[in-house]
């Protein structure tokens, strides 16, 4: 390199340095609006909601008189909220398990070198593109006791399979006086023998509709996971005489654990927030059998004007979701940093 | 050539599931296409006698202004979201500054919160800004709560644009805006498509914000109007079904035409 070019290079570098500092200011300036928008609309509003949740605000007129955690205490003693907690647990368990099972089966089948894979994949996935409101409207008719699936069952000569779907007020639970109930009592958990720890049958209908909408997404996740497993690993197992089922069970499944975890977190946090589907499909259901915290929050706040109670429900929802999401976010960001 | 039975079984199971997933669409279509005297719950699964569009006409009449509202809200919100996300992603990958990772984490959290936890302040704020009950209020809401996901998708996308290219341009004294308009933006089309599809679909399908911020039927988006239609006892259920199909059509078309990009957005936005 000659001295001339070196000098030119240096002056260019100095020029670039000056540009960089002023450009860095531009960079920060450009991201500042987003920063403030999120600061106010997310963090500020959460703080504001928290403030409402410890206030006395119980009518159209705002009232920020501080009452401590009274609203939360009342909430957990509230009959409807207790049922909502039960419903959310039941919905989450059934929905997550159903989506994982269905998604995995479909992905495992599609991974077997299927002709028309893209075609099948897009059929399983298309419900994702549809609004929960649409899903709710359609499934409300499909699972109406005097229509849809029940008529299909009747036509197939299976009238005995008729089911009351989301109109069924029954809750399956362990009776206090049953043998199981007495056994529970004997080991000191007798309180579990109560409808509040049961399974509301009407909820199954909502689970079916939600699974129809979301299982294709789990399939896509598993399919991507399966494709990422090196062929040599599977080939080695086959050489050792493993059947396809054994390869799936002992090679693929353990390697898919991160996918399963991610899917569980995504589905779980979605089921904690579920709202639209319940609104359009069943609303509260018989005896609050399909009621959920989001619906309770919406009704009590914007129809009942119980703002403080609504805010406290929303804060409970936020905390529950955060317990699930923050460790996961931290884990995945750290994993990203390692890569 | 003998086909092993296991192959036949696999195709059989896949086809059975495909029919199961398509069942609601089948019911939507045949119900919507029946004439009014053919519609009865007992004949729900029967094919229509011919192509009758009466239900669709009625449903469209009931929903047309709401469809227009949805478009008026979705299009500006999607366009603004795309540009915000693109600029944020560009800065967070190519103009990193101390604390930019923390800032990213800070933005990202907004994606996972249950929106119930911001609803009351949102309504209060919208009222004070005189945006309550207006489409622009909804546009603002969707743009702001879309910042995390659009930033995430663009950040992941720009991570794959070679940084050397940008560094070389910086040494040559190119400005931040110059690098964006001459290098980054021309490479961004696939990113824009993914983000646009994502935002279009999720804003179109949104119900919670729409139901909270717009109480006046005249400006309600189609999801809210459909829910009202379906909750009405006077409206025949074939009209409800036709309405559901109409409300789903725009996002379904996007899915069919641009499915590949839809999938990519899904994976990026997996954590919603």
In short:
The complex is a heterodimer of chains A (339) and B (272). Helices cover 71% and strands 1% of the residues of chain A. Chain A is mainly α.
Descriptive notes:
The complex is a heterodimer of chains A (339) and B (272). The two termini of chain A are 38 Å apart. Chain A is globular and about 90 Å long. Chain A has 339 residues and is mainly α. Chain A contains 14 helices and two strands, in the order H-H-H-H-H-H-E-H-E-H-H-H-H-H-H-H. The longest helix of chain A is centred in the first third of the chain and has 51 residues, at 3-53. The model of chain A has no long low-confidence stretch (mean pLDDT 90). Chain B has eleven helices and no strands. Chain B is an all-alpha fold and 272 residues long. The model of chain B has no long low-confidence stretch (mean pLDDT 91). Chains A and B meet through helix 1, helix 3, helix 4, helix 5 and helix 6 of A and helix 1, helix 2, helix 3, helix 4 and helix 5 of B.
